[in-house]
Amino acid sequence: MNAELAIESHDLTRRFGKLTAVDHLAMRVPRNMIYGFLGPNGSGKSTTIRMLCGLLTPSEGTVNVLGHKVPGDAELLKQKIGYMTQRFSLYDDLTVMENLQFIARVYSLPKAKQLRRIEKALQTYFLSDRTRQFAGTLSGGQKQRLALACATLHKPELLFLDEPTSAVDPQSRRDFWESLFRLVHKGTTILVSTHYMDEAERCHRLAILDHGRMVADGSPQQLMDTITTTVVEIASASPQDAHDALQEKEGIASVTQLGQRLRVLVEKSIDDPIAHVKTFLKHANVDAQAEITRASLEDVFVASTHKQVSDAER
Amino acid sequence: MLNVSWTRIYAILTKETQQLRRDRLSSGMIIGMPVVMCLLFGYAINTDVRHLKAAVADQANTQLSRQLIIDAQASQVLDIIGSVHTGKEIKELLDAGKIRVGILIPHDFERRLEQKDRPAAQLLIDGSDPTILGAARSLTSITLNNMAGSVTSPTKLFEVRNYYNAERRSAVFIVPGLIGVIVTMTMILFTAVAIVRERERGNLELLINTPVRTGELMIGKVIPYIVIGLVQVTLILLLAIILFQVPINGAVIDIYLAALIFITANLMMGLVISTFAKSQFQAMQMTFFFFLPSILLSGFMFPFDGMPAAAQYLAEVLPLTHFLRLIRGIILKGANIGQMMWDMYALFVFALVTLGLAIARFKKRLE
Ligand SMILES: Nc1ncnc2c1ncn2[C@@H]1O[C@H](COP(=O)(O)OP(=O)(O)OP(=O)(O)O)[C@@H](O)[C@H]1O
Ligand SMILES: [Mg+2]
Q1: By C-alpha distance, which of A53, A56, A69 is closest to A21?
Q2: In a domain, B38, yes or no
Q3: Same domain, B178 and B239
């Protein structure tokens, strides 16, 4: 085990009956960074996180987290990790304060520290005026802030966050990420799953999962630089027609409409992507402008997960 | 199990108490159930059957025999609606369902009384209804106490004997047993849903990711209910004394010692159920399947000695059987716990085995 790595897995696999939710995953998560987990619904993000925490037994493969074998030595790990579940898992019928106190006690924080930590967490996550409210009656975003407050209360070395901001408004999401960076600054390693591209872009490193397989791994910049498709942007007066003209055509990985414009991912194997696209457009009598543009992370995501789908279909 | 953390146990038990306090239904059940059950079993389900229709065949027709009939009627157990001549006629009336009880006083009634080795009179009863059997037993306690200088021996008056409640008050016998029944019901129900509920509400994924150990979780979850169980015991004891004048012949401390271990045994049983059940509904079903034989076989409903041997062996496994012996022994007979250690050990072993089973069954895993 490399001491620089917080998480290392080999051939990590989990099957549910016939379905392979996680498929021979080789992960290397360096310490002290935000590692993003990107992937469509059902791609195995939550299942992987559960296996890394020792909550699910892998069907195959080995996992080493912070130097502990998982699931074998998972109990030794519990004090060092924090886990924010995708579904709210704190107690609805306990108040915000009671939930925090429960977590403080169950992680055996010394009495003197408990109050100070809780005070701090309430401030950090903007919950100071909600201490006596039942957790069940909090709004979606407030619940997620409480969950993060609880997951970080014992200052874990490694933090697993499963879609922590799915119900959080943009401003709060910014604040939320601020606090994540502060944690990293203090030495925490964070593994976070998300569907948001802006969040993915903020990660130090990203893994894209699709059908349980890792289809891309690297920094957002690396991923955008090494994208396997060319991005062609098309401006047209009749974008719907242009869309239909290009949809599911040879060499075209995907077509996305953005208002009057289309974003088309063209396979790298096509030598002249502009000409390739224009042929189809001309064929359908659609008048349009086309130009090559920089790939965004969303393009990377669509390109890598799309390929996987079409591979599977063939 | 080594280096158990009291902080973590405290965390669990505080959380459990807070949740319980807010759960109106459960809180209501803690107080409501003992009160309702006590009133129901103590008053409504009264095995002191009264006003049974009866016929008499007084073949002796002496002053003593007439006195016996007057006493029987005075007990209010019987309503003597007719008088016949032979046992055969009584039988016919019984068969036709016209009467439930017949009294046959033979010609040689007075001589039988003096001989003392033969029953003096016969009680013919409709045995199809067990409560009537019970009533008949109570009748046998009639003595000819109105007879000055009587030489009768009360137990030999009637052929039916083997009565067990000298005062003819079933509440005295039933209410102490109720402690066991109510505690079994509430305690098992409380912990049977303990883990399933965490799972159903999605709390389990968080809980099993904390450093809390299985044993700590189990103990933390059980402690609040031990307190509640003791409160219930106190409540039923008070009702027993105030409403039903149940005499507490033994030591109160013995009652609580027996109750403590019995409560614990039931809570552990609930935990075991909780590790098997997939939903709260299933947990309740399983509780019921445990509760039913407990009530039927323990000696609460039917006399233990009357059961077939196989049922008796089975009953020995049930905590309620042992507790009924303990509590009836202490309250009614004034026995002390030292005389009944075997039952205490049995409860202790049951609690230990079930705790072990619950811990072994519970995995800090999601699958
Ligand atoms: N306990 C289970 N039993 C059966 N199938 C399961 C189980 N848990 C997950 N799966 C399946 O495994 C696959 C991966 O699920 P997982 O929850 O890991 O996806 P995810 O990437 O977290 O998706 P999302 O973005 O929607 O949260 C899904 O197809 C899911 O249906
Ligand atoms: Mg998920």
Answers
A1: A56
A2: no
A3: yes
**Measured from the CB, is residue A64 less than 6 Å from ligand 1?**
no
Residue to test with chain A: of B18, B209, B366, most A Cβ within 10 A: B209
> Model pTM?
0.80
- Reading chain A (314 residues) residue by residue, the pLDDT tens digits are 566 899 999 999 999 999 999 999 999 999 999 999 999 999 999 999 999 999 999 999 999 999 999 888 989 999 999 999 999 999 999 999 999 999 999 999 999 899 999 999 999 889 999 999 999 999 988 999 999 999 999 999 999 999 998 878 888 888 889 989 999 999 999 999 998 888 999 999 999 999 999 999 999 999 988 888 889 998 888 888 888 888 888 888 888 888 888 899 988 888 888 888 888 888 888 888 889 888 888 888 888 887 544 444 43
- The Cα–Cα gap between B243 and B316 comes to 31
Cβ contacts of residue A243 below 8 Å, gap of 6+? A255, A257, A262
Q: Is B210 on the interface with A (CB under 8 A)?
A: yes
Query: What is the arrangement of strands in the sheet containing A34-38, beginning at the earlier edge strand?
Result: A81-84, A158-162, A189-194, A34-38, A205-210, A213-218
Residue to substitute from A65, A75, A106, interface B, most B β-carbons within 10 A: A106
**Alpha carbon of A20 to ligand 1 centroid (Å):** 10
Alpha-carbon distance of A52 to B230, in angstroms, equals: 43
ipTM of the complex: 0.85
For residue B212, which residues of chain A lie inside 8 Å, CB to CB? 106
Domain enclosing residue A241, as ranges: 228-294
The atom number, within ligand 1, closest to the CA of A43 reads 21
Are B206 and B321 within one domain?
A: yes
